[in-house]
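for ur thesis appendix - NDMA-dependent alcohol dehydrogenase. copy paste whatever u need, i formatted it the way the template wanted (i think)
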Amino acid sequence: MLWELGGKWEVEEIDLDPPNAHEVQVKMVASGLCHSDEHLVTGDIPIALPVLGGHEGAGIVTEVGEGVTDVEVGDHVVMSFLPSCGKCSYCARGMTNLCDSGAALILGPQLDGTWRFHARGEDVGQMCLLGTFTEHTVVPDQSVVKIDDDIPLEKAALVGCGVPTGFGSVVRTGAVKPGDTVVVMGIGGIGINAVQGARIGGARNIVAIDPVEFKREKAMELGATHAVSDVDEAWTVVAELTRGQLADICVITTDVAEGDYIAPALSLVGKRGKVVVTAIGHPDQMEIKTNLFELTLYEKQILGSLFGSSNPRHDIPRMLEMYRAGQLKLDELVTREYSLDEINQGYADMLSGKNLRGVIRF
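the 3d part is after this line
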């Protein structure tokens, strides 16, 4: 749990209410240590405190509330950090990552406005309606996706956030085509899967940018054709590879999306090139600088990407099928597993560049 901005994650016993209508209780097996939960600590994602963190997880259903029909006790499920109701205007148009239920992601209580967790006499919010940093949790049935029992849950957890977000940033939002040149700016839990998306999508050149040598090496292992330490080096490589036409897509998957990153990213893409902003920016940052003359004349594009523009109920099972077929790599993404009481060490390792993805095992 997180009790204060800038604080440490604290492990303690808390009270959990049973599921209400259209909710399920899940015994957690694994939870990914995603950078988005670090944004709770820094305040880059504003949320009421105290809060139970964690939004990338998988487990087994242990109880269902009234009206739940999609899953039953004993089912293995992956939690999608974005709920999808299937009925709102956005879901009806196929944009389930923009479901109206997502308005509750950082409010704290559940969709009905009440809390399931309580500690020290206070109601406790849940990150993205989930709160996966716990042995048991109660979540909306809109947020769980049933998967086959033979998929290891500690690997399946990764497709609740990091894998589809990175993969989809290139494949869905960026609409990569065979033969494209793709640049990935920042190789963490999201960026490494943008690399995978570019590889599976048929990109001819995949240039990974990261100052950490370990991450550049992992990018090469998972599909990058080139790995460099900064934008200037990337521009030289991309210009040579494309005979001066530059990249088709540049995805920003850094720890934080700074306004100063937009112009360098746009410099890496050519005519009608796309800059996909997947990393979360500071909520109070209102300015970016870029060359508007060039933006118009070259028809360059800046696109936001939430969950990689993915559809949780379609893409999560599909990605696990790709994993089973050996096309999508999940085992190689997990740098280290941690126990729950090692969570602060896990985030220290992430911030120091030691991990692609740390995973808590329960």
